[in-house]
Design brief:
144 residues; mainly alpha
Length: 144
């Protein structure tokens, strides 16, 4: 299935430049997209919408991509820049509060993701080690 091939770290996060304004805009866009995909997932359970929004798997993949994108947006804005964003009227006090809540919420899943990646790396290292050992055995057998 083509959707299973998609990386669990796939994202659509992109900024026009490295300015705080562009980063805030990207964060707000990703947050809005997360709300949209969550609404779509709920609507897809209704008879009127289930054939229009994509399959359950497609919506699940879109949700993952958008969550990854929001996580990147959150990681790209240091907390120290939030006051500056508020002073420049790029974010309201409520948006700053929402940002901090999102960062705390997504931070927990980021830690889980880091643990998962570390485990995957360890598994790959073991598999490579076994593969190298088998190659050495073949070389040894050939040399006899």
């Amino acid at each position: 299935n083509e959707y299973q091939i998609m990386s669990s770290s796939a994202h659509i996060y992109n900024t026009q430049d490295d300015s705080l304004e562009a980063k805030i805009h990207a964060y707000k866009t990703m947050r809005n997209e997360l709300h949209n995909i969550e609404k779509s997932q709920k609507l897809s359970q209704t008879k009127e919408w289930q054939d229009r929004l994509g399959t359950e798997e497609e919506l699940k993949q879109a949700h993952t991509v958008i969550k990854n994108s929001l996580r990147r947006a959150l990681d790209n804005i240091p907390d120290v820049d939030l006051q500056k964003a508020q002073r420049q009227h790029l974010m309201t006090a409520k948006e700053v509060s929402d940002f901090l809540a999102d960062k705390q919420s997504f931070g927990k899943s980021s830690e889980q993701e880091i643990d998962r990646i570390a485990q995957n790396k360890a598994d790959i290292k073991k598999a490579r080690s076994r593969s190298v050992s088998k190659e050495r055995e073949k070389d040894f057998d050939r040399d006899r």
